[in-house]
User: What shape does this take?
Amino acid sequence: MTGEPALRVRGIRKNFGDHVALDGVDLDVADGEVVTVIGPSGSGKSTLIRCVHQLETIDSGAIYLDDELLGHERHRGALRPLGTRRVAAQRSRMSMVFQQFHLIPHFTVLRNITEAPVRVHGRPRQEAEAEARELLERVGLADRADHYPRQLSGGQQQRVAIARAVAARPRVMLFDEPTSALDPELVDEVLAVMRQLAAEGMTMVVVTHEIAFAREVADRCVFMEAGRIVESGRPDDMFTNPRTTRLRSFLARHRDSLATPQEHVS
Amino acid sequence: MAGPLSLTERPTGPKTDDVALSRRRVRPWRVVAGTVLAVVAVLLVHFLVTNPRLEWDVVGEYLFDPSVLSGLGTTVWLAVAATVIGSVLGALLAAAQMSQFPPVRWAATLYIGVFRGIPPLVQLIFWFNLAYLVPRISLGIPFGPEFASWDANEVITPVTAAVIGLSLVESAYLAEIIRGGLLGVEQGQRDAARAMGFTPGQTFFRVVLPQAMRVIIPPGGSQFISVLKGTALVSVIAMADLLHSVQVVYNRTYEIVPMLIVACLWYLAVVTLFTIGQRWLERHFSRGHTTGGLTRRPKKTSHGVSV
Assistant: This one.
């Protein structure tokens, strides 16, 4: 966790019509760091990582991945938007795991995982399939390779989605509330996979409602409200000793899930 | 022992009933409907068999007549050509309607409005008479030099007028069908494809279109059947389609009814065949969209592991 940050977010703003979704957000994510983002609904957490992955355009500010400006290039002394292929190439260096999984329904599980490595990164299909099977093994779904996503439970689909995201060998992995759409009894299997990734040194930005998980797995935690980062720091300091009243009241509302942080450790 | 109530335990108490032992209920309206249908069927068969004016021998004689078969061929290829050209144009129009650039949207909407709004018969006659409006068709830079030009009277034959007319009408209808299909694919699928680093082209052809096809195929199939029947219109511009070819015969022999029956039988045969093909396509594009036991057949992998 030393040296240049893998990801730098500088003063980004994003409006949806009259609604201010992001109101000047700065965030550095170091190599190998796990940053969790918490905050009430509508605070801009998801918008933040969707902007980082260029699924939304930003209105001002800048985002850098390994010192490369995302989405724009310098042209005759001014910035101009990149063409769609260049943007796609930049996106291929990060991965995103969605709340609703978004596996491709007409591809088998194996194909979902190999599609980006083969089509985007140009790896040989055989090699990609071998790696995909290894990843499926790691997320405990080796026997599901030839199933279609709809035949799996939500937790299984999300584990496949994580395997798909890892298969692209991303520089940074972004998680957009990965357990919010799951039945409570399926949450743990997904968190376990994410915990494993974090332990292996993956650089991760995790937007989550799982407060206990956010505390346990993070190197650093960020609390957002109304499109701004209100407080950030080491999770233990932040959770035991919140500096702002807004974080204090947010944590109070989630006291139940914090009271038993061991509950989710499986 | 009075333990906790178990669902698997046989309930005790007074004698219970078993619905499996019930008799069938008599449904009088079904009896009425069945009788009516049977009577109608008998009447119909009686009519078809006994009415001498149907002249079934003439039907048999001309059913495989070379001129009829050639007309059938024309009808089928015209419908296929109109559908293929219409699909390509329709896809472009659908894309145009979803463009971020308003003028492109307006143009597409106007195009669809015009070609859906004017009766196809009128459009066909119009295209057939294009030479009056535009005597020469030329290729070149607008208001600049001209590279080549043709006499419109030679270019616009019944065939080109029919292909152009039917394709344009088809493209307008198919554009709406394709647009509906594309809108039916959830935004998350596009997000996921883009998040994987897919280019817009890969996103469209690998992820969005295959899913849209599920929604496009059923109305698209109906549209094909509709244009297949719509080809009968080209007989007015003297193109030798199925209807025109039987008309040529009955204008000579006055065996109008049996010749129309020949045409009807062929239309029904082709439509039935394509409907079967459509079912197959629907099944193909619904793969992965059922939760049932529809797994891909087990495949031997390079590791020799059968999964």
